[in-house]
Amino acid sequence: MNVDWGESRMPNMTLEKVKMPEQDPNIRNKNFLEVTLGYTEEQAIEEAKRCLNCKNKPCVQGCPVNVNIPDFIQLVSEGKFEEAYQKVKQTNSLPAICGRVCPQESQCEHFCVRAKKGESVAIGRLERYVADKYMSDIALKPEKQQTNNKKVAVIGSGPAGLTCAGDLAKMGYEVTVFEAFHAPGGVLMYGIPEFRLPKALVQKEIDMLKFLGVDIKTNMVIGKVFSLDELFQQGYEAIFVGTGAGLPSFLGIPGENLNGVYSANEFLTRVNLMKAYKFPDCDTPVRVGKSVAVVGGGNVAMDAARCAKRLGAEKVYIIYRRSETEMPARIEEVHHAREEGIIFKLLTNPTRIVGTEDGWVKGIECTEMELGEPDSSGRRRPVAKPGSEHIVDVETVVIAIGQSPNPLIKSTTPDLETQKWGGIIADEETGATSIPGVYAGGDTVTGAATVILAMGAGKKAAKAIDEYIKGKSK
Amino acid sequence: MFKILKKEVLNTSVKLMEIEAPHIAKKAEPGQFIILRVNENGERIPLTIADYDREKGTVTIIFQEVGKTTRLLGQLNEGDLLLDFVGPLGVASHFEGLKKVAVIGGGLGTAIAYPQAKKLYNMGVEVDSIIGFRNKDLIILEKEMQAASSRLFVTTDDGSNGTKGFVTDILKKLIEEGNNYDLVIAIGPLIMMKIVSNLTKNYGIKTVVSMNPVMIDGTGMCGGCRITVGGRVKFACVDGPDFDGHEVDFDEAMRRQAMYKAEEKKSEEQHECRLGGIKNA
Ligand SMILES: Cc1cc2nc3c(=O)[nH]c(=O)nc-3n(C[C@H](O)[C@H](O)[C@H](O)COP(=O)(O)OP(=O)(O)OC[C@H]3O[C@@H](n4cnc5c(N)ncnc54)[C@H](O)[C@@H]3O)c2cc1C
Ligand code: FES
Q1: Domains along chain B?
Q2: What contacts B32, CB < 8 A, 6 or more positions away?
Q3: How remote is the CA of residue A298 from the centroid of ligand 2, in Å?
Q4: Which of A64, A217, A427, B132 could form a disulfide with B155 if both were Cys (CB 3.0 to 4.6 A apart)?
Q5: Is the dihedral of CA A103, A104, A110, A115 positive or negative?
Q6: Residue A378 binned pLDDT confidence (cut-offs 50, 70, 90)
Q7: Residue range A151-174, pLDDT digits in tens
Q8: Tell me, what's the ipTM?
Q9: Cβ < 6 Å from ligand 2: which residues?
């Protein structure tokens, strides 16, 4: 039946996005429940009608996996939610996750025509809406594909590994995912906090993979328990390496080994994966204290700061040596962090962590900075203001200045070529590495990046692995 | 899930378990460790691999009931299952080109020193082992160490068995008597390893210690296990756990080890009141 939408086809010309309901900042900064509550059906349809359905679809070019945005939004405006979901799913395997964590403002929404005058269409929120609706409506059931009896191993169960595994399983491969931690999901589980990405949702995506027949083996540190060679000997015809960028960077300033200094990885893993926010009901503790300094300006820093606030710290500082415009975090996270009472100390560079006599953190010494000439990355380089040294009193310091790929697999696979900084060298289109049959993608290739890029890399590699295995058996 | 195939009580607070973990047993080497989690709300704790049987597919762990997790573990029995068991982690100990070695185990450290002594002894190296305990009731693995050593010396702090005194007293005596050790391996409490290292430094004898800091992942991703060695930051889980005892900053390591003292106490209290609750129910 063709519905005649008549009048209602007229786009909604409101300049602003339909607001998404959220928990009040002063309530949510004391709990770990999701901050944003998602659109209602009416809100989703209303927002979808803001899309002009442009012919040249600039938004699609802004999406790393080219989701067919205007088409899916059109379906939302028509109330065809399941079809809208399928449309997104054609190119994005993890829409409920991407709708929540993608930096839309620098991707799809950045190119939206509506953003020229007013706000862009809320593409991310709509993506989330269709995915959430679908996930809550369907009952999961096994849908194992006809197997082709060919085994593929996937190492790491972050977005790159999960996507690659899912796509290969749909093609009929027998996929085994090896994960070092006791729970699959990678950063989605151990890094991004519950209040931004509910773990039940990640678990549901993982359950869907299991229903496709993917076997997930946790507690398996590849490079230690099996080498890549041994995996080939076990009959895996190809291997995808999606081991992420898990190696934390430290500042290299005095005092970093004092009690009370954490890498963001450790702090967030304690809180998210080990559920330290439920201590002592859960056994893993975390030290927060009354005041906390988080060093860095990315999503990781925002997440750590907001966790610290929720764990009861009265004062939480973000210490970042450039200005707000250079901050790599999603705009929404910076905005939410401010609302929740995080104190931003921008253009501030930590130079030393100060300790008590018995070795506990009592402060962080900083220098104020001003922006000078642009550096090689195009960002204006911060330079120190003489005489501006001062100490911020804190009991805990979290270092969130970046992560690089873990050298564990490289160190036991000498033939695997890597960059100087540790990234695995892989073909951009296929993920092929220096070893035939070994593919790689995600943060382990690019260095710390985004969920959507990792997912895209997993997708490309799945296609390449399929071609490789078919080519081999010819 | 990982099945407990065997449980043995070594002394009042130290227990031994053999865990079914064939993949790990196949790869394990002395010096390496595993990380385990007892149940869903549990902590991840590292334990050194005390022994392994590649044929049977088992890994042996020996632990002292010092905190909530180890106590919980101690309550499990043969046939029970552990939720998570991952390894082998860390770098295996290197033993090439050694002729005569002193292996020192302090308390529970004896359990970690044992596989090293055994491997060296089986390689034909002359092994003098010195194991020290607070009193005779705490002595563990005496028989096993005897079988893995050319000579075994046992000390107790109170003299209730063996020589009264510390392991360092014996070590010093042996060195002074002219025993030329290529290497001293010292495993035990941080303070013991520090004192041994200070002693051997005077004699210029290379000394390896096994560090066991707080850990989470055991794969180099959190940095919680960092220690300072020769002025540089190392991650004990991937760069160690064995390090040059003359280079380790023991004072920092001792301080870092005490980081969660207050929380550990709270966690245990809660555990006890829960147990109490069960008993009363
Ligand atoms: C706190 C935080 C917040 C973030 N926020 C955002 C955001 O808002 N939006 C966004 O787009 N991106 C965000 N990112 C980045 C994003 O999460 C990553 O880019 C993405 O997860 C990378 O995916 P991946 O699959 O390559 O690796 P990961 O997600 O890192 O997964 C790798 C997995 O491999 C496992 N592994 C590693 N080594 C081995 C081994 N030897 N054997 C077996 N398994 C192994 C690891 O345990 C892990 O589970 C954030 C990252 C962090 C840390
Ligand atoms: S335990 Fe996390 S890096 Fe060593």
Answers
A1: 2-89 (2.40.30.10), 99-200 (3.40.50.80), 211-261 (no CATH)
A2: B48, B49, B87, B88, B89, B90, B91, B92
A3: 22
A4: B132
A5: negative
A6: confident
A7: 999 999 999 999 999 999 999 999
A8: 0.91
A9: B 215-218, 220-225, 235, 237
